[in-house]
Amino acid sequence: MRKIRLATFLSIDGVMQAPGGPEEDTTGGFSHGGWVWPHFDETVGGLMGEAMGEDYDLLLGRRTYEIFAAYWPTMDDEIGQAFNAINKYVVAGPETPLDWAGSHRLEGDVVEAVRALKATEGRDLLIQGSGELVHTLLAAGLIDELTTLTFPIMLGGGKRLFDGAASPRGWTLEKSTPSGSGVVVSVYRLAGEVVTGSVAAQEPGPAELARRERWAREDRS
Fold it and tell me: Is 79 helix (H, G, I), strand (E, B) or coil?
């Protein structure tokens, strides 16, 4: 069985849209494309390469595939050579041509198609960008590893990594590495169910019980 890994650039308020350039994705009037540039140095590039790993196939949503397919086939650097050589599994309808060598369309129900692909033997499946696909797979509990490269900026609006529909899960922080430019790279592995408890040092008193009842009434109204 393959693992599904996500490696993504992220602002500290959770935006992942158009990190690479001003025209990458202006959906919704987004005007801050290219926001990684001031903080992207050799150290961050090395950490990104480490996060991506060396043995993977790509799993992409339609928009990210179209961005990548318009850029990477002509690139001959290390990442370009890797991307051009590996398989690209794409969640997209027939209106999206898959002209990039090694591209394969996933058809039918997204969750079932990805679950079936994950069950096969082969390399890990690495997701880049692909926000809508990420939301779907987080809701289904199909992502095994999250690597976030968090940049020290707030963007206010834009497409976000988490949309509120993610399935509750516990995660283990495997590694966290800061760069000199303020980027923090964190690797999380899926750990299981969410464990809850209380930090209260004593049983609730009358004021606390009254507060709970008041809030419960507000929720019901």
Answer: helix
